[in-house]
Amino acid sequence: MSQYNGVSLPTREPAQNPTEAPSMTSPPIPTSSDEDPPLLDDNLSLDPVSVVRTYDRYWIDRRSVQYTSGFKKEYDFALKKATRTNKVSSAIPLILRDMGPPPGSVFDPRVVWEKEKPAYLAKLKGEAAAALTPTGSTPAQRQPRTKTKKGSNKKATKAELIAQNSKRLEKKSHAKDSEKMENNNCLESLQNSTVETGVGKLQRMLKMLHITAAEFEAGGGAGEEEIFDILWALEKIPAFTQASEELALEKQRRKTEKKETKKNKEASSKSSSSKSKKSKSPVPPPALSENAEALKFLYESNDYKDSVKFARKLLQKRADIVNFQLTNMSDRLPPLSKYNRTFKLEEWQCQVLSAIDDKRSTIVSAPTSSGKTLLSTYTCANIDPSSTVLFVLPSEVLVWQVAATYYQFFEGNVTLCTDSIVFQDQGGKAQVYIGTPRALETALTKARGIAGQEMAGEREFMILDGGFSFAYLVLDEVHTLNGPEGDALQRIVRATNCPVLALSATIGNATQLREWFQLVRDEHLSIMGSFVIAGNRDEVLGVEHVARFINLQRYVVVKDATSSSTSLQKLHPVAAMTASRLSSTQDTSLISALSMTPGDLISLYHKMKEFPGLLCDEDSPDKFFFPQEGETSNKEKQISLPQTKLYENKLKELLIDFATSDPDNYENLRHSFDPPPLEKIDSLDISDELYGVVTELKEKKLLPAVAFQLSTFGAFHMFKTLLKSLEVAQNAKYPEFRNELRQKAKEKSQMRKVADGKAEKTNKKDGEDDAQAGFDEADMSLEDIFQPHPSFVLSPANSHLSLQEIKGIREAMEKAGEKLDENHALIRGLRRGIAIYTNEVGFACYRRQVQILSQRGKLAVVFSDEALAYGVNMPFRSCVFCGDMGPALTPLIAQQMQGRAGRRGMDVQGNIVYLGMEWDTIENLMLGQISNVTGSNPHYPLIALQRALAMSNDPDDANFVHGKSTTSSTFETALLQMAKAQNCVPTVSEENIVHMTNAPLAAFCGIEATPNYYDVSKEIIRQLEYVDADMQLTSDHNVLSMVWELSVEYPAESVNLAASLPSFYRHFVANQRRSSLNIGDQNAFMAAFLQIIDRVPCADESVSLQRYLKVEVEERTGKLIDESGKELFVDIHADISLLKAKVEAFSLPAEAEEEKLKLILGCLEVDVGDVGDVGVPLDSGVYELLRTKQQGFEADVSIARRNELKSRLFRFGEILRVFNNNIQQPHSKYRELAAYSNKCFTAVRYSLMDILTQLTNQDDECEI
């Protein structure tokens, strides 16, 4: 018996290896040896809960994320022998551990909020009191009465003992710090060193200032920027300020004493003959504090005092200190300074954190990299450990990143869910569910009831428990309500009845979005039966923040007119802001988006000075930042980053007035910032520019960078282009480098043989014996013969990948089924500091390695399509837009892409580079036009089936179907046990479905929507004969669970597949002449499937699918027709044609007539009455790829065609995967079809891997 949540579950250990198939009765369902195991048959006379189980297929091979963790021996009395069973565990925890941040580096917002919360609440309380207190009156404060303690000679108290012990430990730490500082004479090493005491910090700062000052005086190394940065940071240390004041007072006291002593001597000589008087005892000088003593010692034992004096004099000589800071120190302005990086919550962050404490729903609209991440982390960390947070993210890469961080933060209590993989810890209750919208919706709905190991009475780590009951809902990048999975995201929002934290980039209708969330929360409370009144209403807080923490510097790539060389030229944001836009009161969002760096500000000021009367003296940077008197005066002469944002607002106000009063002159000012003429370049034609641009980025220290190209093939082309350019450049400068490495490797190999007593044999047979024993002369595997020359590696010198690191990466990839040789293009790219990350189903382990290496600063350039656009938090300094991307580059995607540069807490600057783009396109991107979030339509025709399936799997519901004699008793028993253990049924309640089908966000925003959608959907599934009037299932449960899972994204394909299943069964199961082991029959199954779900019209001059299958032949060719194939094709065509006629005859309300069209396949112009007709000619591209097992595309296939076929192939595979996972369940008539779908899905995976292999395959240019 096993225990789960206090419920005893009967279990029986399988007799076979869990990664293999247990024995099965006929008919068997074979599978390939390298894929998931065969399925068990349900017709067995076993215990109520037996070893019956299924294995879901995912795009990631299940075994690639598992490992053998041990074995178990049992004695089988029936066989009279011992059996050994391997124990298989999930490797996901190990993967998350490796992907996570370094131990101890995870930022805990609870700590900083705990420190700042009292002051924030006191401030709110003070503001409230001030609002109630009459002006001029001050509430009386009662002074606390102090009590004097009796008996001063008592024993030391506990607190005093603790203080004494702390003092002792501090002295010990100080000695350790002092020793560390004395032995450290390198500035970079000191910057990265840590100290434990305040005196140690003081010594560290003084030594760094001393080193930089000495280097500056010597004419090399550090510049004035470094000296000023350290000096200002030093002067902000309270211990230094206090100690300096004490030493100054001591110096003044000594000077005074010296004068007094001299005066007394003179007085004593005059009065020596007079009567002596009793002299007064001298007053002892005040004792110096520990910090002052330490500073005094450091001054006396080193030249630190001279260095401080030198730095201060250097600062005084700088007359243009304002201009110098804005131009040369823009990435050092506090709080960006690496010497004084103190973190303090901003006002808007405190407001949100306070709302989270009150369990109040909050909608936050703020620019990328403004500090939203800590809010979501606090929400997850702040809930009760017994509760669970649902965290929804827009992309798989973001799921892995957040899960890796939280896995460390919450010590493993994390569940992740994507289209590629699902994982939950089998040990306990997850504190956070992290996933993408559609994958989470499917997993939580749990339409199949139970699956996988749950069918054997065990908790399944790849099948979630289900249900929408959570304590808090966190939505990151909520503006993706407009995105591809925005429909699922909206349904999750409505189904999850709990407070919500929604984080968004800057959007145009933030207030309207908050009001919609308020409506949703009010509906939640109404459904619960409460009255929506002020006392119990969840008042949704809306917070808008417009300032990005680090403003981005823009560059454009300019090509020299006389040569082919390129250069980066700064691009001022004012160049994109016309007078009409600037003076328009309706475009205030555009003005806010017109962010400027400190360098942009000083450049704009100097341009504005050229227009008489535009500026006054008070507008100068010197007067603005350093007023001569008053509370705002700045004695330190240091500018802060928040001050520059205030100055930016001031200049913007002047620009608005200028554009309104004198638009012509304003346009003259604007055009002075215009870039040179720019040309649009296709992404495949930027080869000549790419290498030069990346090289300049490296020279200007603007790497690491993420380079975006929305075309996947375009992104791969750029990756290969840069790799080839680096290799060619290395060959040109160091042509013998690879040969020299080989020669050294041979010499070392020979030396090892000599050392081992295995010198080269003259005897041929002895030489052959040595080769067999592993001493072959050519064996150089221990040497790094493929290492690139350091001059042609883009990552920093201290971040180059070693041979051992590369071996570790390759071993991890090989375990995941992604074996690559050591000289493969992807591996060569990593060694040169470049990589690629795209939305591909292959090379998942490689993508994870790219994430890990990027986080560790090992990569300089990462190419990507939209995969890295949304919310990914990696240390990229620059973002490069590569080539023309057409209409696919929407303002929202562009805004997200550029948000990857200059991440808060990871860098102190961010840059955007436009390469190969027209000025009109760049102008629109610079303006950062903000979109309104209206949401995708969350309603689909079969949404009511979600509720019907939930009822059918609920043992307490009258519509429970698994207790009937026609279904499996094994499945029923397992379902009953797991339903009690998981406490998640019904996964979708009536309240949930009513809420999900209420008016969508679009309707709230004024867009027309179908009313009473739940009733419409119920009528549709009733007329499809899926349910009766009471919503009880009237068709096969597995078929309907398949239909529902597919219908969310593919409604027409789902119902047509269901309608064609009798024909599939008749041709592939009932027909004994067919077998799933036969390649021809597998191809026939694929063709029939594609006939339904890949109905793309055949282009002229192309061979149609019908002709390719020989079900239709041109009369002039005289070729024979495949009669068996034609019979299958005609039957499938008849099925989908009849369903079309049936759907068109549905009786629905007039406003819901369009819903019928969503259930009808395309290319069905032929009437149903045309018996034997094979329909409109269909494209055969996908079928040809699979049938011929092409390893990629032919050379003459265009990029557009490749992108199209790859997308269709993935779509086919996804539908096959969902079909297989549902139809394989052990209580369905159609279960045996899973043998075919399993094989076909494997074929699709291999085909996509072949395409990816072709994309990455490239010869090594260094192999001369």
Automatic annotation (TrEMBL):
Identify the SMART domains for this entry: DEXDc
Q: Which GO terms describe its cellular component?
A: cytoplasm
**Ranges of Basic residues composition bias in the record:** 144-156
Q: Superkingdom of this entry's organism?
A: Eukaryota
Against Pfam families, the record matches this protein to:
DEAD
Q: Where is this region: Disordered?
A: 1-45, 130-185, 248-288, 742-772
User: Where are its TM segments located?
Assistant: none
Recorded protein name is Helicase ATP-binding domain-containing protein
Task: Provide ranges: composition bias, Polar residues.
Answer: 1-20, 134-143
Q: Which part of the chain is the Helicase ATP-binding domain?
A: 353-525
Q: Which ranges are annotated Basic and acidic residues under compositional bias?
A: 257-268, 742-767
